[in-house]
Amino acid sequence: MFQKLLPLFFITFYSTTFFAQTLPDTKKPKKDDKSKAVLAHFTLGGHLPGGDLVDRFGLNGSVGAGAEFISKKNWIIGLEGGFIFGNKVKEDPLSILRTPSGDIIGNDRAIATTRYQERGLYVGATLGKLITFSEKRSGLRLTMGGGWSQHSIRIFDDTRTVVQVKGDYKKGYDRLCGGPALQQFIGWQKLGYGRSMSWLFGFEFNQAFTNTRRDWDFTEMRKLEGQRLDLRFGVRVAWTLPFYTGTAEEIYY
Q: Which domain range does residue 80 map to?
């Protein structure tokens, strides 16, 4: 019985092997660092103020994120945003509340402790190009964009006794300004594949054409009219997470 089944076993085995070697079994994406990709950025920056902004704030920092699409020809288009913060505030929006000695008296008739910080944001679209000089996808990154920028003075009442800056009353002192803005970046970008790290580093410049967003400033006893030119320039570093796309490749067994 076994001798009669032996030839059938060999015929079945070789037939299965033949078809497995000639027919595609599955498909797998073929990807590399030259493919189109979606780039997710997580950024840190530091900037110096310029224009009208230098009269209000000092050095500031920023944290942000962005999402971009990069083509096979290394054209870049995307969206980005950042949160701006700083500890150096040169104006005193609560000066009208101070005594001749410079103190602010709280609701408990004791000296209140107040402090200021800079707060702001930028959101916008980006368009640019990655210029490479070798086979690797690393090179000079040039981008420009436009969007919205704003800044304000955040007031902290550590003793929580200054009723004049509670609730909506605080809006009369924060000097919120906002308006359209332009942004440029020049630096170096490296895009890796697999476990290779992707990053960018360079210099960025921001020009915001702002005006007050408040109808009344309590300290100045008027609306702060007039167009502002708020400038920021500094450095930005980002960690990038690329998601590559590609065509299908047949795998044979």
A: 39-247
For the chain, give the secondary structure using H, E and C: CHHHHHHHHHHHHHHHHHHHHHCCCEEEEECCCCCCEEEEEEEEEEEEEEEHHHHCECCEEEEEEEEEEECCCCEEEEEEEEEEEECCECCCCCHHHCCCCCCCECCCCCECCEEEEEEEEEEEEEEEEEEECCCCCEEEEEEEEEEEEEEEEEEEECCCCCHHHCHHHHHHCCCCEEEEEEEEEEEEEECCCCCCCEEEEEEEEEEEEEEECCCCECCCCECCCCCEEEEEEEEEEEEEEEEECCEEEEECC
pTM of the model: 0.81
- 8-17, 29-38, 141-150: which range is least confident on average? 8-17
**Residues 178-236: pLDDT tens digits?**
999 999 999 999 998 877 899 999 999 999 999 999 999 999 999 999 999 999 999 99
Domain total of the chain:
1
Q: Answer yes or no: is 8 within a domain.
A: no
Q: Which of 114, 106, 113 is nearest to 163 (CA)?
A: 106
Residue 109 lies in a domain: yes
